[in-house]
Structures are given as C-alpha cells and as structure tokens.
Design brief:
Elements lengths: L1 H16 L3 H12 L1 E6 L3 H14 L4 E6 L2 H13 L7 E5 H9 L3 E2 L21 E13 L25 E4 L3 H25 L3 E3 L2 H9 L5 E6 H9 L4 E4 L4 E11 L5 H12 L1 H9 L3 E2 L17 E2 L7 H12 L5
Parallel strand pairs: 1-2, 1-3, 6-7, 6-8, 10-12
Antiparallel strand pairs: 3-10, 4-10, 5-8, 5-9, 5-10, 5-11
Amino acid sequence: MRKLLLAGLLLLVFTEQRSGPWAQEIEKARQEGQVVWYTNLNVDASQRIANAFEKKYPFLKVRLYRAGNSALISRIVSEAQAGTTEHDVTDMTLTFVGTLLQKKLVVPYHSPERRAFREEFKDKAGYWTGTTVQASVIGYNTRMVSPREAPKSYDDLLLPRWKGRKITMEAEAYEWFQAMLALKGNEGTLKFIKALKAQEPAFNRGRTLQAQLVAAGEYDVALELFNYRVEVLKSQKAPIDWVAPQPMVTNPSVASLAARATHPNAGRLFIDFLLSREGAMQIRDTGRIPARSDVEPDPPKLLKGLSVWVPDPQDDINKIIALYNEAFGIGRK
C-alpha cells in the first residue's frame, strides 16, 4: 500500500512539473514500467546515465545492453528478421545508422530538446539526434615529438620522418575512412592510403589503447584518436597531446526510437533525457563531448572554434568496410 502511495505521489510531482499532454505521456510511460536501451557507450558511462534517469523517474527501469556498433547492428537486424524487437532506443555512431534507416527499423521522434542542437547533429526528419561527439585528431608523444614537429594534417604523416612503424592506427577506422572518401574522393583517398601503407603503420584495436601506447612511447604518433581520450591522459600528466586537422572529422553517436518499440512512451521519455541539458551534463562528466550546444565539453577547446565534418548516414557502411579492407590489404593471405 505504501509503495502504491509513493508511486502516486511521485507521478503527481512530475505531472505538476509538466502538465497537459506531457503529463499523459508520463503516465503512459509509467504504465510501461521500463525502457530497453542499446548503446555503444562503455558500461561505466552508460550505467551512470541509466542511474540518473532512474533517479529522475523512479517508476521506470532501464534495461541496458552495451556493445560495439557492428554487434549492435547485427543484433537489431537479427531481431527484426525474427519478428521481434527487444530494444526501444538505440544510441550508436552515425556511420552505422544508415542500415537502420534503410531497413526502416527506426521512426522519427521530434523531441522538444532538439532545439538545443546544431543542424549537423540532427536530421530534419527526426530519425536521429546526436548524444555524444567523437572528434578525431592526430595524437603525438610530447617527449618524442615537439609541437613544431607534430603533423598538422594527415598528409604530413607521409613525410619521411614518420616511416618505420612510428605511426599507430585503428585497425577498423571505418568512420575515418568514410570521411577521407568524402573529403578527398575515391581516387585521392586510395592514392593517400597507398602512400600511408608505405610508411609501415602499426594496426592496433581501440583508440584508448592507442592513446596509451603513444603516451608510453611505443609510437611517436597516432593517425586518429578521440581528443577527449587524449585530454584524460593529459590530466594524468601523461606526455601526449593532439592536433586537429581541418576540417576535423567528427562522428556523433545518435539516439533513435525503434520502429516497433515495446515501450515507445518510455523510449521517448528516455530520449528526451539523453538530449536534455541534464543528460548532456552526465555525458560531459564522463569526459566525453556532449552534442548539445549549450553544454560545453571539459575542456571547451575539444570542439570550440573548430570546423567539423559529419558523415552521411546514407552511405553504405558495408561497401566502406570492403573498400577499406581492400585498400589496406586486410584479410588477404
């Protein structure tokens, strides 16, 4: 009985805060009882956000599934083929969202919070809105490379100074490769890759690991790191810094509502929270860059004053992966 009274009081508080149609939506979400969130955020960050949402809406529980982009897509497509939909909200890198759009696995949702986002980080139709921004930069070890010597562009990495396994790069840098195709064209990109291969770069998996390897002096430079990761290491006095090529490649993670969501009202409420100022501050406090315009990253220079390039989700990620593997000779015997 006491639990029922408490739930009623909590609902009354929320409906008083936001009355009218919104109060009805909260009541519908309360009846659903939970929201299922598929995300590429690591467990620590995603659990922090889930806990904050549950604290704000204690009548709702967040069921969290965390995986990489490819694994998320595979799971979502498999569910659709089986005629089921386990998730309500997805949050993944924009490059991979094209598959969901093509297969009509997401539906538009024009959250009122979208007004606080720059045009690059939301689509006009409402299918996706940015949550976090991954900004790709060139990282370098400050003990081995002076600021004057540090490469200022990707083309600078083709200089003789960097030949002989002095460069580390992501083994699956598909988003970066997508950007190169857009900025340099197919012919220019493949010419660049051929010259880059001659530099004998080392392939490693995970940009966090690569940042750690550069900071440890295993490599002079990293082709593509996320600048917020570098800033975390810098705050720990590690000898590492970064340079942003212009335009800087940014690939936001974006939130979308599942086309056949089991808990659609709770899903919309959760998206509102992800996109809200409160949600963006939770994202910032994990060290990441919020996509929301009125919440600056820490430090602000992570995005401030930098021109950005955002991928086209309509690009076929499978073709990009195949061309990437062919260009670098990955998978050949």
